[in-house]
Amino acid sequence: MEENDTSASSVMFQRVSESFDKQALMKSIGASLVDVREGSVSIRCMFLDETKQQHGFAHAAVAFAIGDSAAGYSALTMMEPGHEVLTSEMKINLLSPAIGDYLMATGEVVKAGRKLIIVRATVVAVTDGQEKDVAILQGTMVPVTR
Amino acid sequence: MEENDTSASSVMFQRVSESFDKQALMKSIGASLVDVREGSVSIRCMFLDETKQQHGFAHAAVAFAIGDSAAGYSALTMMEPGHEVLTSEMKINLLSPAIGDYLMATGEVVKAGRKLIIVRATVVAVTDGQEKDVAILQGTMVPVTR
Amino acid sequence: MEENDTSASSVMFQRVSESFDKQALMKSIGASLVDVREGSVSIRCMFLDETKQQHGFAHAAVAFAIGDSAAGYSALTMMEPGHEVLTSEMKINLLSPAIGDYLMATGEVVKAGRKLIIVRATVVAVTDGQEKDVAILQGTMVPVTR
Amino acid sequence: MEENDTSASSVMFQRVSESFDKQALMKSIGASLVDVREGSVSIRCMFLDETKQQHGFAHAAVAFAIGDSAAGYSALTMMEPGHEVLTSEMKINLLSPAIGDYLMATGEVVKAGRKLIIVRATVVAVTDGQEKDVAILQGTMVPVTR
Asked: Which residues, listed in sequence order, are joined to residue C111 by a DSSP beta bridge?
């Protein structure tokens, strides 16, 4: 059983990873895939000089990028092979400045419909192992055939 | 009169430009400030290999980044000197894939309150001079003292 | 030509009206259909004691109800007969208290896709013929077969 | 200790209840306050003929009304006496038709800032004791002095 679970999990990671690695933006902003489960994906992101805004924090678009991607890949884990997802709409509330050692975004599927997948994500900044909420996101993904 | 207008407009452009130039992310994604009016700002963005998603289009976060910034700077044009704005929340609906010669985001202030500025933005992709809607955004900016 | 236009317009009004009249909530909050055009619908709403919140203004849910319905019916005007629309998601920014002689919501279609219709709406309060912005909405409608 | 907790809890319920009872709309749609804790409030709502939409389900605005109110009162529980809250913006994703024995909305505070309180809410339909997700909301409340 465990072997199967591991195997299924490994296939899932590979599938998400293949898509993730094709996203040049993810690499450009210093993001990497850290965890892939059914209905939940986590993405870690470094603080790069290239992605700062005028106050020296990571730009809101970075929190958006990793939150949106974590949410989107969460949706992908619940879809048949041969499909991809696109963001239809996304709402982000910014809670505190994005500053610390690194950012971590975790997405989750709230409802996986046939035509629409409703998702949520949380982005935290981690400093010396302490988490601080940076942003929460809520949105809709649509499945597309590759 | 016209001279004054031009002068006021020039001061406004300079103010927004100073802040814009400090946003490393804007440069990293190939964005530049093209128009600054009272309550409305436009930002142009190139298509870079570094900002693509897995299908070869510009990542949704790019449309978010320039739409959010155009909206934020629109708010800034209506504030007293010595203030900056931060995004409190932003909602984006994606209308079509971001592909073409370049992207253009135009932000506008819907209501400039003392504590909250409600904003909107539109992002279009321009191909051979033809515009296609890529995204619309609606959100809230908060003034902060530098 | 004009006769045809009038006729088409009249058919469109009738179609929206038929659905609108089945919405008990619209009647309960004092809302009525005032204008139906292709891609744009307006709904007027009285201020009733029954729909007030604790400060004596109309409850935010009233602005939501008529803004969402105006947006939804705007979408309906662009669909084939035999379809209805449901709200998939809606974002509302509240701009000022809902108080005055009456409220007026105007919805419009931003993009009519086959699976998703992106819409916007504005809600104003009218006092002595003067309009004041009360709310703006941005969201997604999905077509359903009756 | 427990006595104090109960007492504090009872004061909190009374405070929220006083405001809730002034909201005519809540009564009109059949909503009642069922639970008040620090940072979390639940509202129950009957299915009334008066609040239906054209398919016989409760109108999306009903889910919005109770979700928004549950979220707003959650914010109120974390504020100094003498304050009220107003919704600044709210985003709702509708997950399934609102039908069943009754609706239950539960709001929670995600971040209580001095100027802005970020909130979330979930609305479920309960049928024979079984819950089904109807809607999720994410938004911003602003404190106002009475």
From this structure: C118
Compute the distance between CA of residue C68 and CA of residue C64 in angstroms, rounded to an integer: 6
AA identity, residue C60: A
Which residues touch A55 (CB under 8 Å, ≥6 apart)? A97, B84
Beta-strand pair D40-46/D102-112: antiparallel
Determine the number of helices (DSSP H) and then strands (DSSP E) in chain A: 3, 6
Q: What ipTM goes with this model?
A: 0.93
In chain C, what residues touch A89 (CB-CB under 8 Å)? 89, 139-140
DSSP state of A12: H
- Looking at the complex, does the CB of residue B131 fall below 8 Å from at least one CB of chain C? no
Q: Note down pLDDT in tens along chain B; length 146 residues.
A: 444 556 777 889 999 999 999 999 999 999 999 999 999 999 999 999 889 887 889 999 999 999 999 999 999 999 988 889 999 999 999 999 999 999 999 999 999 999 999 999 999 999 999 999 999 999 999 999 86
Question: Using a CB-CB distance cutoff of 8 angstroms, which residues of chain C are in contact with residue D24?
Answer: 49-53
Torsion angles phi and psi, residue A144, rounded to 5: -130, 150
| A145 lies within 8 A of chain B by CB | no
Query: Rounded CA gap, C56 and C98, in Å?
Result: 9
